[in-house]
Amino acid sequence: MKRAQMVLRNKNLGIEQYKFMLQALVNAGIGEETYGPRTVIAGTEGSPHLADALSEIEDVVFGTLDNLFTKTGVPPTEIDVLIVTVSTVSCGAVNTGSSD
């Protein structure tokens, strides 16, 4: 997806914000081969589903672990406990209001 298309999907921005976002993407080196969540690439980030999050976990976590095991030479059978945090899995609405 072209960087400009990603920026232009944000309908509530002014021209200065559009310019800033586009320049930030360019300066960050984000291009056609850059990894991004499938929902962002597909333009569906406003309505993600659990399946999207699980798919991304499979892509990122398992790929990362495979690379880690390969680079270190440590087989997965040698790992007793592995703690992984995933902060982006939040597909549903969260009620943050108090119950008072």
How would you state the average pLDDT, rounded? 76
Number of strands: 0
State the helicity in percent bands: 40-55%
Roughly what fraction of the amino acids lie in strands?
under 5%
Number of domains: 2
| Main sheet makeup | none
Number of helices: 4
Shape assignment = elongated
Element string (H = helix, E = strand): HHHH
Instruction: Please identify the structural class as seen in this structure.
Output: mainly alpha
CA-atom Rg in angstroms? 18 Å
Q: Spans of 5+ residues with little confidence (pLDDT < 50)?
A: none
End-to-end Cα distance: 46 Å
Kindly describe this structure:
The protein is mainly alpha-helical and 100 residues long. The chain folds into two domains: 1-34, no CATH class; 48-88. Helices cover 47% and strands 0% of the residues. It is built from four helices and no strands. The chain has helices at 3-8, 15-27, 38-42, 50-72. The longest helix has 23 residues, at 50-72. The chain is elongated, with a radius of gyration of 18 Å. The model has no long low-confidence stretch (mean pLDDT 76).
Structure summarized in a few sentences:
This is FAE domain-containing protein. With 100 residues, this protein is mainly α.
Layout: helices, strands, pairs:
Blueprint: H1 3-8, H2 15-27, H3 38-42, H4 50-72
Identify the notable features of this structure and list them briefly.
mainly alpha; 100 residues; 47% helix; 2 domains; FAE1_typ3_polyketide_synth; elongated; acyltransferase; single chain; FAE domain-containing protein
